[in-house]
Amino acid sequence: MKTYPITELDANQQAELLVDCPRFMLDITGPDDEPQTTTEYDDTPTRPPLLSILIVIGAVLLAVLMAWLDPASGAEPHARPQATRLDGGTLEALWRAICVVESNNNPEAIGDAGRAVGIAQIWPIMVADVNHILGRKVFTLDDRRSPARSRLMFDTYMRHYAAGKTVEWAARAWCCGPGWERRATAVTGSKGYWEKVRKVMLGS
Predict the structure, then answer these.
(1) How many domains does the chain have?
(2) Residues 59 and 107 grouped into a single domain
């Protein structure tokens, strides 16, 4: 608690003091019983109002959220496919993106020296693998030219190997096979492939 003699302040300072410090006391007892007016107030720092604190916290959280949602800010968008688990909806989106990347939606496309055929550029080893998963010969090499039959092979492959995995894992497995993360060459080789698929899925 500090005491400021009124007599040591000019008129303007006295007025400002009384306005700024509503809690004041008048002490009319001075040295030698001479009337003297002083004012006292508690100069202990006060806490900011709770509402102001909440407003500041809310503004900070909103700024962080907007930066996270805005792709232009350099942060990943909320619906970033690499962190999304594979399900019915993401499986459909992944299929569409893979068809664009692999063949530009051309069911007659042939690549990799004739080994990759169709809209999803399926190799013979994948046809054999899908038949092995099903326990019998369901698909033939000619089925690779059919978008519908290729989609069935894709679904079988993904539900067997990529259940519970992320979309990124599934895309890279389509490129380099299951277990790609355990092979250094596959990790490197599938990285660029995934980036192409991701961009198609994000519409960029």
Answers:
(1) 3
(2) no
